Amino acid sequence: MDFLLANPALLIASVMVAATPILLASIGELITERAGVLNLGVEGMMITGAICGFAAAVGTDNPALGFLAAAAGGALLSLLFAILTQFALANQVASGLSLTLFGLGLSSLIGQSYGGLNPPRAYRLDIPGLSDLPFVGRAFLQHDLMVYVSLLLVAGVWVFLNYTRAGLILRAVGENHDAAHALGYKVVLIRIAAIAFGGACAGMGGAYLSLIRVPQWTDGMTAGAGWIALAIVVFASWKPWRALLGAYLFGGITVLQLNMQAAGVNVPVQLLSMSPYVITILVLVVISARSGGAGAAPASLGRIFHVTQ
Amino acid sequence: MIRLEKRRQPSNVFAYATPVMAVIATMIFGGLLFAALGKDPVVAIRTIFWDPLFGQHAFYYRPQLLVKGGPLILIAIGLSLGFRAGIWNIGAEGQYILGALGGAGVALAFYPLDAWFIFPLMILAGGLAGWAWAMIPGLLKVRFGTNEILVSLMLVYVAEQLLASMSLGLMKNPQGFGFPGSRNLQQYPSAHNAEIIANTGMHWGVAAAFVAVIFAYVLLTRHQLGYHIRLTGEAPRAAKFAGVSPARLILFCLGTSGALAGLAGMFEVAGPAGQVSVDFNSGYGFTAIIVAFLGRLHPIGILLAGLLMALTYIGGEITQSSMGLPAAAIQVFQGMLLFFLLAVDVLTNYRVRFGAQTA
User: Fold this and answer.
1) Which of B6, B90, B336 is nearest residue A102 as measured by Cβ atoms?
2) Each residue of B252-261: pLDDT tens digit?
3) What is the pLDDT of residue A294?
4) Shortest Cα distance from B198 to chain A (angstroms)?
5) Which domain CATH number covers B201?
6) Which of A18, A299, B191, B198 is most buried, by the most CB atoms less than 10 A from its CB?
7) Predicted confidence (pLDDT) per residue in B324-359, tens digit
8) Measured between beta carbons, which residues in chain A are less than 8 angstroms from residue B150?
9) CA angle, corner A147, sides to A142 and A151, nearest 5?
């Protein structure tokens, strides 16, 4: 605890790092859900991204290529989900679960020879003068680039959803796919694009874990981060800035409990380790109690779209 | 141009054919995967599906079929009730852990007392613990409308931490020389879930699984509650008009699936596993989701699907030791199965039409 209080700049910095993987995954899932598709495979896409990114980064010795590969891997896996739900008209909950189970297996299969390796170091922001500022520099301006990419992504998604025509169409598809179809929009294509975007973001979120936050590859290393990202989308009421808030709050909790573990606070380790999940549940309860169930969820969320005539 | 046309009635033929098609597709693509890993695909598939039943050492593997299939069937039966009604308990793994902790807790509390009532009490405690754990998402859903998928899943991670805490602390064997893990219940006759008939793999948990299959069958086909479950899944609005109480249904489905998962955990810890340890849970709660869908959420189907899935577990272990196939390959194989199943299931509810629109 002393360590935390002694250096608030370091605290802020570590919260941002802890929050970034979940932020990336949840901003992607947010777009998917705004298009009316509930993809519960975030965990599977994250872990697949984690190993794809790790393998590519180690293979090419270039972390940027790692993140690209992670995005590609996550998007590719999400297309399996797209085939199931958009063409085979399968139940979205079941399809998402299958994606998670499949992704967990696939990643551990690919990852067998990557245990114990160290990935190349990611490039860090270093603005002469600014990054060395006493407090602000350490807290905000010395991160790896992905932290800023994730923040830009939030802003971009916000602009896209609220100020562009394409964003309006995406929301229309999510709110009422029959009406959108009647207006001539390609519901299935738009949804596939949204699913792939969600997959790419989740993949990058996973790679952030394996390349920067941990940084190493271990089996099942996402440990529920994908599910927490799903919970954050609900917490955010499907709004980008609130997803940012949710992810950073969650990052704060994670950092706090890890620091308490490290400092040897007189609380059982397991109790601390379970706290992020318990707090996620509590937050979900508060949100759902306030909004009365579904709340701001897109009206067509999870429903199967089938053109009758 | 390929179009899908909704059937008035789900096809009976395809209801039976799709699981078989999914298994065959999985064998083909799984074989390709094994080939890509540099193993002979034909040998690998034969080792997984044939050798455990009819191979040279089949006498050793056949009992394992029941040992692995029992918990899968027991959990999947419970899950299928909720899945039918659109109530998604995906935290069976956590309820399984809690059941094991409940059962083992009772046993360890009575140790070393020798009494007939200990095992029945353990069954009760195991079922109750699983039920209570599933009631958390249930009550939150009913009271606040909280998403049961996320809550039940989060509770898996909480349960895993609880398991770690128990096997390192409260339930640790005081005579275990400091090693983590509880006393071995196999060496405590009053608590041991022994085989009912020696060397068959048939323990009380397997018996419970068979009873659950019969129970679920009767419930779904002969009982009003089962009718309500089916109605809610197939026509939610009609169910509402018919006066089905969603809250009661949610609590029943989640509670039952939790109790069955808890029982599965309890029978496992008192039998095949023997002790509470950090890595006690082995993913049965998640694999059971595949089993439930592969069995088309039908009790008899789940029985068969559970045995098939047990086969892939056993076959997977054999391929690991004899062919050096990684354990993860089997996990991918199982994931593939669910994937193909969902993909071909479209044929049950839709007709595939070629050419331009006619009607």
Assistant:
1) B336
2) 999 999 999 9
3) 55
4) 35
5) 1.10.3470.10
6) B191
7) 888 888 888 888 888 898 888 888 888 887 766 554
8) 227, 230-231, 234, 280-281, 284
9) 125
List the domain range (segments joined by +) for residue B282: 61-314
CATH code of the domain containing A63:
1.10.3470
Cα separation, B105 vs A227, in Å, equals: 30
A263 touches chain B (CB under 8 A): no
Establish, for the pair of chains A and B, how many residue pairs have beta carbons separated by less than 8 Å: 143
Nearest CA distance, B118 vs chain A (angstrom): 29
Contact B145/A289, CB-based, under 8 Å? yes
Closest partner CB to B346 (pick from A80, A88, A94): A88
- Are A278 and B158 a contacting pair at CB < 8 A? yes
Residue A54 lies in a domain: yes
Residue B82 lies in a domain: yes
Residues of chain B with Cβ-Cβ distance to A96 below 8 Å are none
Domain that holds residue A20: 2-291
pLDDT of residue A309: 47
Mean pLDDT of chain A, nearest integer? 86
C-alpha torsion sign, points A307, A309, B1, B4: positive
Nearest CA in chain A to B334: A102
Which chain B residue's Cα is nearest to A290?
A: B144
Residue B142 lies in a domain: yes
Residue A3 has pLDDT above 70, yes or no: no
Give ipTM to 2 decimals.
0.86
- Taking CA atoms, B94 is separated from A237, B80, B267, in Å, by 27, 17, 15
Q: How far, in Å, CA of B159 to CA of B108, rounded?
A: 19
The residue assigned the tokens 């609880």 is B162
Q: With a cut of 90, say whether residue A22 has pLDDT above it.
A: yes
How many domains, in total, are found in chain A?
1
Residue A299: Cβ within 10 Å count: 11
pTM, whole model, 2 decimals? 0.88
Which tokens is A15 given? Answer: 């919260």
> Would residue A275 count as lying in a domain?
yes
CA distance A192 to A309: 21
Q: What is the pLDDT of residue A274?
A: 87
**Are B157 and A230 in contact (CB < 8 Å)?**
no
